[in-house]
Design brief:
The protein is α+β, with helices and mostly antiparallel strands. The protein has 28 helices and 27 strands. The two termini are 93 Å apart.
Length: 819
Amino acid sequence: MLSGFLNTQRLQTRIVGTFLGLLLLIQAVSYWFVQRSVEDHTRTVVRSELVTGERVFKRLLEQNHDQLKQATEVLAADFGFRAAIASGDAETVQSALENHGDRIQASLALFADPSFKLKGATSDEATRFLTAVRNHAQSAQSSEPVDGQAAEVDERRYQIDLIDGQPYQIVAVPVRAPALIGWVGMAFRLDTRLLLDMQQLSGLEVALAHRQGAKTQVAMATVPAGLWPSLLPDAAVAAPIDKASAPSSRLTDLETDEGTYSALVVPLTGSEGRSDATVVLLRSVDQAMSTYHQLQRTLLILTGLGLLAFGIGSVVTARRITTPLRRLSNAARRLGSGEYGVTLTTRASGEIGELAQSLESMRQAIQHREVEIRRLAFQDALTDLPNREQFRHDLRKSIGHNAASGTPCAILLMDMDRFKHVNDVLGHRFGDRLLRAVAERLRQEALQGQHAVLARLSGDEFAVLLPNADASAAAPVAQRIHQVLERPFVLDDHNVDLSAGIGVTTCPEHGTDADLLLSRAEVAMYVAKERQAGTVVYHAGLDSSSEESLTLLSELRQAVEHNQLRLFLQPKVCLRSSQIIGAEALVRWQHPTRGMVPPMRFIPFAEQTGFIRALTMWILGEVAAMARQVADEGQHLKIAVNLSTRDLMDQDLPSKVEAILQRHQVDPTLIVLEITESAIMDDPQRALQTLNRLHSLGLKLSIDDFGTGYSSLAYLKRLPVDELKIDRSFVMNMETDLQDAKIVHSTIELAHNLGLSVVAEGVEGAKHWKLLAGLGCDEAQGYFIAKPMPAADFLPWLKDWHAPDTTQEELGTAFAALT
């Protein structure tokens, strides 16, 4: 996708590139102009601050000069000082100078007569000081300045002279009594306090430099001493500087270790008109620019965001422009290859967008129909989940993929507990809504984040396919399923508690055939439900014939198709008349290689896989044909057929049975359908509906293995049954176990009171026969009468039947009391 997007031949790439290129160019030019403007503005502001700083500094010198002059004038006007001068005592004059100098914190002090002859001084080396005082006094005595000389006269206030290499500000005040009797001179050395005051007032850095011979060096500064050598611009070295020069000519830039500074050189004129001292005012350009750096970063960020937003917008715009063209191209390729059976004809005229929209609409319409057809074929209409067929397809695909990659896959088959009772109590519509809620909860909570396939196979049966997972990886998923089902479902103010039995199989551990894996998962699921174990992983111990069952299902199907099944009959006798009145139909499998396969080897497997329904239909067809044959021989015999739980849950069973009876023209009363208690109790409501429909056809109904189930008496009075079959476990031990005999007797009494006939199975001897007859049992079957025999042998055997003689059998007195 990226390589295609970077293809400069594509229209979309050219549109996006053009838009982004223009925006980037505009932003770059704008940034350059803003940068230049900011730098120019900053330079202007810095220069303005330096010029203002020069005026401030000069104003500080003037204020300092005025304060010093006032203090000196106080000394000159002092009567005692003038008296000391008049006395001519040099020591007295010097003492007065020292005392007053200390009081006003003057660094140097002297007194000279009107001709500037030194009369006293606080320093031994006062020659340079005396010259400065004389020059200053002469400047003060000069006449009023003419136009253009005012600035020069004002400069005396900040005249700085170098005395012994140190900068001093000189003040000269005349002493009059009342005539001029001399001059008092005071010198105040400049120190860092003045520079710090200047820094606090202006925010500028200040350096004071002075000339010593041909060199200029920094005397003091507010910046670290390490930067002093770099604080002397060329303008400070070039001396003398024209004191009337414009500030712009004294501005320069300095590069230091701390960054770039703008410097303004301020020459300080001395008493002789020279500029031996210089003040350098400095302003950090980097610091001034720092306030704009954040603005620059913000501008860069906005530029980046703008490029991103503009890029996204241009991509969206380009896609909107090129999408119709791409759709037209794709539709043309699909239609040109024969897809959907339509040939694409391109035209140069017309609106490309309209053509693209028309072709895409046509493709979508056809695709929608195919999706709908596929949904109807492979999707469960109630939950919108994949159905059994789609799940089998996905499972086979996963098996093939895993076989190539060597990775396993796992299948979880689950069946809801108590769901049938919900249908019975709250109705099927409520049950449908509950199934949708279960599917949604499984999908959104139990399987969220899992690469899994969830399907509804039938009824309340769901399946989960976990690619690339073994049994250990499937266990946490099964646990989450149990956890999400533990919370009640709330629908229409009803709280419904559900749970599930889950069976787990894995490929290739438990097989590589989709149907086999599903059947084994179903085996494990039913074990989990029976044991209430939650989750059970399939193993060979759950299915005693697991090794043979790898091919048993396909062979069982072939057995029906290739007529390998055999119908066997076990006779039933009427105990009152000792006549054969019927038989029970049994099935045997004559396997071409295995020989005669007993029912217990394939009937449970057929029930687990659901193939029992096909077997039941085969038996019913054979029994109907046999009943027709017996009737044609002039015999009136009832033939019983066993129905499994799956048969009883089949809502189409009555119509199927009716079709078989009509095909063979058989009297329905000759057919007896035997149902176990457990089959009825699995879903009593649905079983009752099916039994009522079967009974309405004229079929006789019998409850098989009566007494081994539970909770059936509540339904017995409602079931349309005609007889009860007492389980062999009670009959076989009744001759030695009085309790079993009492149970048989009570069951016979109960059935007769309800108007039902009683059949006892498991009659193994003459005592069984005689005792059952004495207890009033109606019919019996067992090995004492005859073992199951092929249907072809039944009629010949019937003709040779003779009732056994039981008159010689004696029963104990306890059993006699039962009768």
